[in-house]
Structures are given as structure tokens and as C-alpha cells.
Design brief:
Number of strands: 2
Structural class: mainly alpha
Order of helices and strands: HHHHEE
Strand order of the largest sheet: 1-2
Strand content: under 5%
Distance between the termini: 46 Å
Shape: flat
Number of domains: 1
Radius of gyration: 18 Å
Helix content: 25-40%
Protein name: Transposase IS701-like DDE domain-containing protein
Largest sheet: 2 strands, antiparallel
Organism: Candidatus Hakubella thermalkaliphila
Length: about 100
């Protein structure tokens, strides 16, 4: 069995640096020239990861106030149809308009 061509830190660094596209093909494209693995290497990396969320919870639970904290899930898209360019904003699907806004 060959050693993996990318590791979890390669993918983490990509996620931190990426602003819009979070795909394995984009992760492969953004790697340094001398080390550039194929997108399949990132796909295999993600498939090897355990789907268990216990490790994530162990890291996060000290930061969560379980007596007074709230979990807020918000997928709101605010319409700014006439704005030409806004920083840190990308296109999103709008269920209201049934198109990308």
C-alpha cells in the first residue's frame, strides 16, 4: 500500500485559505507544484476519516456553555439584488427567487 499523498493538515490549510470553493478538485489545484496530489488523494483522505463526531465534541465542549448556550442554525439569504459588489459575499441559491442571487 502506498503512503497517502496528502494529509489532514493539507486539507485544513486549504479550508482556511479558501473563500468560495471547497471541493477536492480545488484542494488539489491549490497545492504547491512540487507536491500537487490528484483530487482523488483528497477524496480518499476524507473517506478514511471516521464519521464519529466524538473527537470534535471533546475539543468543543469546553467552549460551550451547556446551561445557557443556544444552537442557532441560520441559512437566511438576504436579497441585495442591486448591489454590484460586496466584500465576503458570494452567490447563493434563493428559494424565494428560485435562482442564484
Amino acid at each position: 500500500m502506498n503512503p497517502p499523498k496528502c494529509d489532514d493538515l493539507d486539507y485544513i490549510h486549504f479550508l482556511i485559505a479558501s473563500q468560495k470553493v471547497f471541493t477536492c478538485t480545488e484542494a488539489a489545484r491549490c497545492q504547491p507544484e512540487g507536491k500537487a496530489p490528484a483530487h482523488d488523494a483528497f477524496t480518499r483522505l476524507l473517506q478514511r476519516q471516521s464519521p464519529d463526531t466524538e473527537a470534535l465534541w471533546q475539543e468543543a465542549k469546553e467552549l460551550v456553555d451547556r446551561k445557557q448556550g443556544l444552537l442557532v442554525v441560520d441559512d437566511t439569504t438576504l436579497d441585495k439584488l442591486y448591489a454590484r459588489k460586496m466584500e465576503l459575499v458570494t452567490y447563493h441559491w434563493s428559494g424565494k427567487h428560485r435562482q442564484v442571487v
